[in-house]
Each structure stands twice: as C-alpha cells, then as structure tokens.
Amino acid sequence: AGGVGLGVPPMLGVAADQEERAAIARDYGDETDGTALVLRQSLLRFGRDKRMKEVCRLLRSNRTLRMRAPPAHALEGGSGAGEGGTAAQSWKQLELLKRVLRALALPAGRGMLTLASLTPDLTEALPVPRLETK
C-alpha cells in the first residue's frame, strides 16, 4: 500500500530506500539531527500539519548556535563611553548564559519528543544523532 490510500506520497513508507530517505530528509528534516524519523511518522497521520516540523527545527542540536550583538547605539544607556561598554558586556554575558542553558536543554527535549512520538519496534535501534560542540 505504501500510504497510497492515505493521501501521502508513497516515498513516506517504512521501507524507503536510501534515495527516498535522502529526499525525505531534504524535504522534511535533516537525518543527522535525529528528527527525520519522527517527521516521517507524523506526516503519515497529519500530512498538512507543520507544527511537528517547527518543533523539530527548534530542538535541533546538530548546528552551531549563533549570537548576534545589537547595534552599539542600542546599548548606550549612559552618558559616558564606559557605561555603554559595561552594558554591552553585561548583555553579551546574559545572552551567552541564555544560549548555553538552551543548548543544554536541547538533547533532553529532543529525546522526549522522539520517545513520545515513536512506536517502539524491538528490531530497530533508535538513531543517536551527533551533537555539535564547536
């Protein structure tokens, strides 16, 4: 059947070959972050719902987190140049702390998503995605 009666493309079946898996990863999620399997299964039931794709995008930890500093004039709160530098430094430290806490929570959140979304299969191992540490 391969999902023909469900209104889902046949390539989303469980027995997809490597080329089809690459197409799924390209269209619905990156294989290296461990969420493509969750996306494939959710698309079988909810083909048009994009919420799962957005959750998987938010929980990916295989890409480097970037921090962008605001413009210098936005940080200048005082009259002296020293106060603006202190504000910029404080902002960077606070932003870095938020990013680190978020990065530490990503694997646990993605694990909860994966384990809650997949049906256990005794013959298939769960994929272990790589963790970006750069």
Give a short summary of the structure.
This protein has 134 residues and is an all-alpha fold. The chain has five helices and no strands.
Number of contiguous helices: 5
Radius of gyration: 21 Å
Summed over residues and divided by their number, the pLDDT gives a mean of: 70
Helix content: 40-55%
Spans of 5+ residues with little confidence (pLDDT < 50)? 1-16
Largest sheet: none
Order of helices and strands: HHHHH
- By secondary-structure content and strand pairing, the structural class works out as mainly alpha
Distance between the termini: 44 Å
InterPro entries: Apc1
GO cellular component, one term: anaphase-promoting complex
GO molecular function, one term: molecular adaptor activity
Keywords: Cell cycle, Cell division, Mitosis
Explain how this protein is built:
The protein is mostly helical and 134 residues long. The chain has one domain (4-117). Helix content is 52%, strand content 0%. The longest helix is centred in the C-terminal third of the chain and has 37 residues, at 81-117. The protein is elongated. Residues 1-16 have low confidence and may be disordered. One of its GO terms (molecular function) is molecular adaptor activity. One of its GO terms (biological process) is metaphase/anaphase transition of mitotic cell cycle. One of its GO terms (cellular component) is anaphase-promoting complex.
